[in-house]
Amino acid sequence: MFKKIVALALAAGMVLSAAACNSSRSEEYPVKLANITISKAPDRVIVLSDSIADILVSCGFIKKIEGRSDECTQEEISGVKTVGSKLKPDLEKISALSPDVIFADSDMPKEQLTKLNESGFTVITFVPATSMSGISDLFGNIGAVMAGETTGREIGEERAETLSVTMDDLQRLIPESKVLVTACYLYDEKGTSLKDDTPSGKLFEYLNAVNVCKAGVADDEAFNALKLANPQYIFCDIGVKDKIMKSELFKDFSAVKNKQVYELSSELFSRQGNSLVEALTDMIEIMYPSVSINPEDPTKRTESSKAETSKAETSKAETSKAETSKAETSKAETSKAETSKAETSKATTSKVKADTSLKITKDMFFEFGDIKDDIKKVQNRLEALGYFNEEKSGYYGEVTQKAVKAFQKANKLTQSGNCDYKTLTLMFSAKAKAAG
Fold this sequence. Notes:
disordered N terminus
């Protein structure tokens, strides 16, 4: 890798060479970004930017993170060594970890960048995305650095698409209303706000609400504009709520009078990975308490929430059920039993054939984030057994992990989601139990 420093304006969208974009999987590197060339996949990475750390975690590159700044507080990398603050990292600690690549924010002081440059490190800085399409570019470029122009970029863009789809699904959980809801996010009691022209600022649109803090308003006019808009909900940084509630400046605000001021960490709004979904989920549960998000799947309501928000529908369904003819119910149950019996008989007589495509060794182990050709064989086997129905990319992502868990559950193994020796041995044997 060339030992250079580069600021990548990824949010604006960067055109890569056609040769790189059309490269085959066997030609993942070099990856060219602006005036830097990454010649091979980095094995050791230090991440100073908490937003980029969010993306690396989302894309499954956790195992390659050897160091992090104090601001990178994601639970998934809490055990990784720290190297000081993101704007003034400890050079000695960084040197001790011998990173192949260092990820940083674009606002890192020039003095610190120069020191890292003179020490011979490859530092890549990123400008925050200004739109959801920009986030896709950001994910794609980070993925390309980590795992290659084709595979890595696909991983990044797919994860960004999953992020976008999840937020769309969350929006659909919100009850429809013709009443306009107004809201804002404040960083301090002076009225410094999250503007509506950023991905985080646009989260309010997913809440079916209007972010009253508009971009382009001069700083000296911002508070008056906020006061005129008089938001119904005020979200603010940790430690700011009490100051707002006691402030003479905010005493006439509807949100203050109605005690609808809520604290959420500003970290959720500065990061552009999984934290966006976390922020949206938290705001939905605050503004729409009847919509309780399922912690295992944020796109689905919990059963209690469904009961609270759909009493009329539930009552109607129960009435309909009571009116159902006993004779028809009995007939349906009999038919179901006969069908189940036939299917059970068919499953019993169907034999699973052993698969010898993967040479399994005792030290073989696959887990979330891995990228290997052998994982394609695992995905093919899971598909043959009925647990997997996606492209066989060789990337051990969430879909593969869920498929492995389903296989482990059906075959009475520990549901770790990882492919250890015991799981692989049974999976590729004739004793493997197929889905269903």
